[in-house]
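Sequence only, no structure available. Ideas?
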Amino acid sequence: QLQLVESGGGLVQPGGSLRLSCAASGTTLDYYAIVWFRQAPGKEQEGISCISSTDGSAIYADSVKGRFSGSRDKASNTVYLQMNSLKPEDTAVYYCAAAHLFHKCNDDYHTYPYDYWGQGTQVTVSS
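Reply:
I predicted one. Tokens follow.
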């Protein structure tokens, strides 16, 4: 059974950076694409990044493209989301998710039914 735990959130000033981690246990992440979602108060959940397990390639939402970058570390069984040039509108709870048989990201990743979710980590961007 795959278990996901996010960490790395916190309070940062606009223009700052954070690196979120999605650490897996129970099984290897080698067979799972990892998707990052976020949810801000009063807003719908937004899929912001999908990182394939096949080749490590990633897809990003327009709202974060050019500022966020995902990566995978096989040795630690962890996926990372590097977030640079943070804006107040990036304030949200960030979640990582995975699904059975979902290895390669596509443009519909944000609509896929995910089987595994982390507990979320709060990111607050404020001066």
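The chain has no helices and eleven strands.
Hope that gets you unstuck.
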